[in-house]
């Protein structure tokens, strides 16, 4: 359990979420209570359909819960309106998506600048690319980059605004092992060097070995929370 | 430049085909609008300044002979600012090279050298010297039609005497901006001219010293015209006035006003159609882009772009397309407007008719297209704005399809899978499908609206000149002709058949409405000059009662069986109360007819004739004409064929030009709609299509899925477009319904076929362009990417 002197970045209380998917009703979350501590690297582990993406989306202010509460620092996200959530995402959150979600009509550098233009204290776009090791690919369009490179651009984009939290949804889901490791290294480096609170969603249990803490989700509920005192680097992961 | 704007520009480049198609539809609408408005403004402003500078009168009246002594009393009429009195006579001309009759209207110019009102603008040569005899200034169109230049001589038969006139100048007048001979409906430059001659010459020729037969008044600003006409009538009726009238009944002014009204009409309906279609196209194009960019939108929102930013982004995309289309449309509108004003220059004679850009219409065009684009895409953009980012992260759920009604009615497996896909696609989104059909049908409708005027004109000419008026020559007599004169005319060598008519000026009143109308007494069993109903059936001339044409009945609000008061404005000026016995259809003028014998009885006169209709041996028309011209009692002779041909030529030329624009514009709409629809089908279904190709369907089979929908839309759109076109043509005929002429709602089968053909051709071209992309489908690539 985290010590009380550390700042709690997120706290959720009895979070539930039900949504309509086409003609099917999905109960994605059924009462989730958790805390995320400043600067930690958390892996949310779960099978597909366990509700982990929904949880991440709610933490990131992309979605609102059906019931329950989400606190970001002292702000009650569940009480925020759309404009406040937008403000929150703009100023505090960096996202990395499974399918990168880059704008195909913009180059790597432009995709990052798209975000830095609206951020309060952004990094330089080239520095952000430097962190993910893609400085020389700055002027390539997404279609000219490999999947791993696209995902690293997406990470650079996410951190370029200098966010308080970095939320990654299956960042390696669409990548092969080798490329996945490069991407995870980039994420770990950011967590380490910038101190960004980082949450990574994955269904790949071996990635959990990188984390400070592992939260396992199953069927919309927290199955277990495990501290991991013996973190390994991405390169040493076995999968 | 902001990166979001850079994305905008790159999206636009990606979208260029569709954007161009939509932009062109906007261009077409704006061009028509700006063209009409500029032509309107040019014509209106030029007319106004010509009227003002050359003192066009407000009120006109003609009498038989009024002594000059009455002039001071005319000046005392309240509100009258200026009075002009003059002599006006229509005479026949003897132009050697002309086998057909030409009439000149002689108008006196006072000793001062310029009229007080309706002044003459000298285009070439000089004003006549009022102190010299035998000089004449000729109206420009007539001079041009005959190649007359100052220095030429022309012979006129003035009061029975042949007189040599020497042309000293070529002129224009605000009174004759377009020269239409009274009693005809169409300008005929060769056969009707205005001749300004010195007052002394005319006084001498017609023995009118110290008298006048025509008066014009110009009113001080803000005065009530109708009252002035009443006072004027009271003063002049003792001198044979048939009643004064305002500019509204002045022929040249009427033609100009009708033209202006048409331009205004065009400025309304054309943008309405084109911008409606453009709004629809923008809607489907933007909806598709937003669907495709679901995940990009989600990412932007995830990173803190606000709903406003996203909305503005897509609205900007729409606005750029609309701005480019509008700007181009304004440019083309100016060019077309300039061309149109140039074409007017041939019809309407002003000292200088120049194109004037109408900047207000430019501003309105921008406002209109901006509003249309925003309204058209509002729902689509709203869906992007409201798209919850978390939902957008997830792939779109597969669209729900159901077997359509058609399939359920047919035996199972009677339709191929391709056809079933097409049917289910259409039935899944019925609103979108209907809008596509309406869009394509608009192209059909525009074709019909653009071409029907020629059909209507042909029908009108046919009706009026081939069915109703079957005479070859129309003769009018200076004085009502006695039976012996009629006999003489009817028995000229070459005359095959003849009918006489009696025409008298009247004012017909019904309740509080009244109208100055010529009542024509016609022979009951006439076969040359026939009166017809709308079904082209002969209306028998009844023994009693009066017949009105439908326009007159409408103006007066009269129905068959009503009693109207007919005030005769000639001779004994009796006032008659007559029952309306029948209505007749005519597409020009307002006229009334009676049994000739009954008219004589009502006027208490013997059997006299104002004119005659003659059917003449085709080979002898010229000799009969020459023979008629020699007779002093003959006032004017008109040859129907000549008048018709000259009209058909001028009108046909103008309509052909308009027609080619219309075909282009209809094509633009058709291509715009079809290309967009097909392009969007392709993008929505490229995965399905690629999958079909992968599992072994041929390019042809796959194309059926893509193009079957378009084909179905086009087939449905054609009959709908016919109906819409017919309805719009109906609205237009209602809008163009004036006293001078009405346009019958007649659309030839050929026009319908042509409309369908142009749209099918446009559909085929755009379908072919899109279909080529099916063969270029990247099978593996398409399957790999996540939709």
From TrEMBL, chain A:
This is ABC transporter, ATP-binding protein. Residues 10-238 form the ABC transporter domain. One of its GO terms (cellular component) is membrane protein complex. The keyword Transport applies. Keywords: ATP-binding, Nucleotide-binding, Transport. It comes from Rhodopirellula sallentina SM41. Signal peptide: none annotated. Pfam families: ABC_tran (PF00005). CDD domains: ABC_MJ0796_LolCDE_FtsE (cd03255). Belongs to the ABC transporter superfamily. Macrolide exporter (TC 3.A.1.122) family. Gene3D superfamilies: P-loop containing nucleotide triphosphate hydrolases. The lineage of its organism: Bacteria, Pseudomonadati, Planctomycetota, Planctomycetia, Pirellulales. It comes from the Bacteria. The keyword Isomerase does not apply. One of its GO terms (molecular function) is ATP hydrolysis activity.
From TrEMBL, chain B:
The chain crosses the membrane at residues 21-43, 266-286, 314-339, 359-381, 433-454, 656-678, 702-729, 749-770. The keyword Cell membrane applies. Residues 271-384, 661-775 form the ABC3 transporter permease C-terminal domain. One of its GO terms (cellular component) is plasma membrane protein complex. It is a multi-pass membrane protein. One of its GO terms (biological process) is lipoprotein localization to outer membrane. Keywords: Cell membrane, Membrane, Transmembrane, Transmembrane helix. Its main location: membrane. It holds the Pfam family FtsX. The keyword Disulfide bond does not apply. It is found in: Cell membrane. PANTHER family: LIPOPROTEIN-RELEASING SYSTEM TRANSMEMBRANE PROTEIN LOLE (PTHR30489:SF0). Belongs to the ABC-4 integral membrane protein family. LolC/E subfamily. This is ABC transporter, permease protein.
């Amino acid at each position: 359990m985290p010590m009380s002197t550390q700042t709690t970045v997120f706290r959720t209380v009895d979070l539930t979420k039900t949504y309509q998917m086409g003609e099917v009703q999905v109960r994605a979350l059924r009462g989730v209570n958790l805390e995320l501590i400043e600067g930690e690297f958390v892996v949310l582990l779960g099978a597909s359909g366990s509700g982990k993406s929904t949880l991440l989306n709610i933490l990131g202010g992309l979605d609102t819960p059906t019931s329950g509460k989400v606190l970001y620092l002292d702000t009650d996200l569940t009480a925020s309106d759309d404009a406040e959530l937008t403000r929150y995402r703009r100023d505090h959150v960096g996202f990395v998506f499974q399918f990168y979600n880059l704008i195909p009509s913009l180059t790597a550098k432009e995709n990052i600048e798209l975000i830095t233009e609206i951020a309060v204290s952004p990094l330089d776009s080239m520095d952000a690319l430097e962190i993910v090791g893609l400085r020389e690919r700055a002027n390539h369009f997404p279609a000219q980059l490999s999947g791993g490179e696209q995902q690293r651009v997406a990470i650079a984009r996410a951190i370029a605004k200098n966010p308080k939290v970095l939320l990654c949804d299956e960042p390696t889901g669409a990548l092969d092992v080798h490329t996945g490791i490069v991407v995870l290294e980039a994420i770990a480096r950011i967590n380490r060097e910038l101190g960004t609170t980082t949450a990574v969603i994955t269904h790949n249990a071996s990635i959990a070995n990188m984390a400070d803490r592992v939260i396992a989700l199953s069927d919309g509920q927290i199955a277990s929370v495990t501290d991991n005192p013996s973190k390994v680097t991405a390169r040493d992961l076995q999968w | 430049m902001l990166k979001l704007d850079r994305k905008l520009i790159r999206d636009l480049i990606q979208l260029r085909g569709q954007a161009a198609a939509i932009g062109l539809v906007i261009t077409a609408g704006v061009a028509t609008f700006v063209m009409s408005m500029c032509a309107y403004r040019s014509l209106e402003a030029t007319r106004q300044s010509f009227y003002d500078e050359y003192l066009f009168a407000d009120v006109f009246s003609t009498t038989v002979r009024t002594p000059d002594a009455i002039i001071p009393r005319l000046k005392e009429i309240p509100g009258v600012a200026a009075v002009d009195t003059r002599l006006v006579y229509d005479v026949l001309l003897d132009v050697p090279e002309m086998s057909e009759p030409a009439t000149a209207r002689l108008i006196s110019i006072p000793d001062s050298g310029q009229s007080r009102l309706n002044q003459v603008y000298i285009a070439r040569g000089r004003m006549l010297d009022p102190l010299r005899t035998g000089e004449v200034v000729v109206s420009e169109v007539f001079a041009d039609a005959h190649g007359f230049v100052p220095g030429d001589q022309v012979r006129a038969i003035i009061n029975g005497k042949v007189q040599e006139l020497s042309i000293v100048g070529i002129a224009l007048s605000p009174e004759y901006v377009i020269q239409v001979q009274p009693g005809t409906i169409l300008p005929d430059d060769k056969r009707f001219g205005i001749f300004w001659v010195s007052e002394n010459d005319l006084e001498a020729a017609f023995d009118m010293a110290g008298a006048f037969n025509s008066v014009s008044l110009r009113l001080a600003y803000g005065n009530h015209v109708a009252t002035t006409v009443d006072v004027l009538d009271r003063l002049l009726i003792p001198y044979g006035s048939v009643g004064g009238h305002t500019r509204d009944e002045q022929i040249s002014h009427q033609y100009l006003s009708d033209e202006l009204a048409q331009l205004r009409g065009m400025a309304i309906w054309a943008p309405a159609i084109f911008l409606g279609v453009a709004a629809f196209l923008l809607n489907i194009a933007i909806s598709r882009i937003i669907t495709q960019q679901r995940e990009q939108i989600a990412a932007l929102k995830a990173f803190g772009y606000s709903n406003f930013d996203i909305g503005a982004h897509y609205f900007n995309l729409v606005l750029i397309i609309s701005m480019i289309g509008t700007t181009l449309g304004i440019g083309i509108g100016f060019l077309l407007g300039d061309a149109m004003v140039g074409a007017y220059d041939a019809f309407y004679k002003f000292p200088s008719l120049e194109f004037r850009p109408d900047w207000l219409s430019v501003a309105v065009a921008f406002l209109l297209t901006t509003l249309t684009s925003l309204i058209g895409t509002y729902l689509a953009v709203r869906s992007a704005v409201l798209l919850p980012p978390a939902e957008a992260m997830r792939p779109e759920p597969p669209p729900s399809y159901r077997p359509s009604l058609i399939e359920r009615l047919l035996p199972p497996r009677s339709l191929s899978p391709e056809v079933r896909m097409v049917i289910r696609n259409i039935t899944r989104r019925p609103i979108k499908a209907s809008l596509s059909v309406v869009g394509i049908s608009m192209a059909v409708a525009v074709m019909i609206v653009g071409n029907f005027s020629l059909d209507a004109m042909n029908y009108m000419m046919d009706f009026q000149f081939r069915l109703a008026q079957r005479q070859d020559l129309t003769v009018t007599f200076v004085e009502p002709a006695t039976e012996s004169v009629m006999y003489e005319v009817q028995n000229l060598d070459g005359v095959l058949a003849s009918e006489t008519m009696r025409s008298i000026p009247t004012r017909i009143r019904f309740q509080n409405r009244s109208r100055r109308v010529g009542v024509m007494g016609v022979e009951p069993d006439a076969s040359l000059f026939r009166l017809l109903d709308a079904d082209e059936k002969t209306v028998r001339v009844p023994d009693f009662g009066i017949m009105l044409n439908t326009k007159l009945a409408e103006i007066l609000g009269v129905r068959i069986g009503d009693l109207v008061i007919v005030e005769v404005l000639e001779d004994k000026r009796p006032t008659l109360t007559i029952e309306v016995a029948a209505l007749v259809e005519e597409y020009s003028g307002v006229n009334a007819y009676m049994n000739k014998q009954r008219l004589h009885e009502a006027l208490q006169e013997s059997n006299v004739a104002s004119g005659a209709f003659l059917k003449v041996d085709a080979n002898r028309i010229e000799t009969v004409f020459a023979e008629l011209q020699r007779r002093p009692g003959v006032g004017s002779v008109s040859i129907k064929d000549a008048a018709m041909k000259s009209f058909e030529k001028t009108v046909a030329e103008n309509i052909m030009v308009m027609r080619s624009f219309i075909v282009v514009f209809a094509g633009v709409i058709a291509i715009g709609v079809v290309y967009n629809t097909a392009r969007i089908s392709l993008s929505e279904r490229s995965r399905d299509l690629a999958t079909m190709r992968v599992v072994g369907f041929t390019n042809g089979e796959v194309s059926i899925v893509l193009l079957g929908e378009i084909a179905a839309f086009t087939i449905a759109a054609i009959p709908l477009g016919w109906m819409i076109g017919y309805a719009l043509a109906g609205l237009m005929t209602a809008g163009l319904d004036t006293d001078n002429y009405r346009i019958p709602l007649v659309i030839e089968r050929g026009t319908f076929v042509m409309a369908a053909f142009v749209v099918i051709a446009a559909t085929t071209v755009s379908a072919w362009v899109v279909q080529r992309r099916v063969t270029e489908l990247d099978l593996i690539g398409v399957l790999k990417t996540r939709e």
